[in-house]
Amino acid sequence: MEKMTDSRQELLREFRSAHRLINECQTAIFEVIFKKVMPTFGLLPGKLECRRLFCSPLRAIKSPDKALSGSCFGFSPDNWAWDLIYTHVLEFYLGSVKGKSFSVIQVSDTGSYRTTVESYKKKDSSAFPPADECGSLLIFKMKPAGNAMHTSEATIRELIHMPENIYHSKSGSVYARYDMLDFMDEDSTDKVMDRLKEAFRL
Fold first, then answer.
1. What is the rounded distance in angstroms from the CA atom of residue 114 to the CA atom of residue 86?
2. Exposed, middle or buried by CB within 10 Å (0-12, 13-18, 19+), for 165?
3. Which helix (H) or strand (E) holds 89?
4. Per-residue pLDDT tens digits for 19-39
5. pLDDT for 151-186, tens place per residue?
6. 191: enclosing H helix or E strand
7. Domain total for the chain?
8. Cβ atoms within 10 A of the Cβ of 122, count?
9. What are phi and psi of 12, to 5 degrees?
10. I need a surface site. Which of 11, 105, 106, 173 has the fewest CB within 10 A?
């Protein structure tokens, strides 16, 4: 019984640590986007639009307490726990300049795209490859302004499995895939920015 209690305590300790680690990593990603990526693309840092993928949308509901307006949503047995983990896959829309639009796709764990399509649809994390066999990515996208901005789940899966990290689509979009490890310090981040300028011909 004591061992089981210790095991549960350790699980909850890891649960708390994971939330703190997500906050630290997401803060670092925000700094890269606002302080490095947007200036590189000639965009002024400001409010961004963001779309979450992999998760199902949550239905906003009205609260009788006006102070809670806009902060309440509906949740049912049909929802996945993943629906509350917003940062799993995100696409940030950075804006447009000189006829080009830019976005950054954050893939926190490629495991969901390295499993079977059936397991992916079920959001079954037990079927994902081990975490140390997966990766965490930032995928940069440049497209002609006016084309649809959002990136499909199928395209992200395809980009993750491509051997080359630069991909030119038939629609004129250019994608550049990098491991988050490439953004762990300022020097390596600056090198990626230089490579992005070359890939996007900025």
1. 19
2. middle
3. strand 89-97
4. 999 999 999 999 999 999 999
5. 998 899 999 999 999 999 988 899 999 999 999 999
6. helix 186-200
7. 1
8. 13
9. -70, -30
10. 11
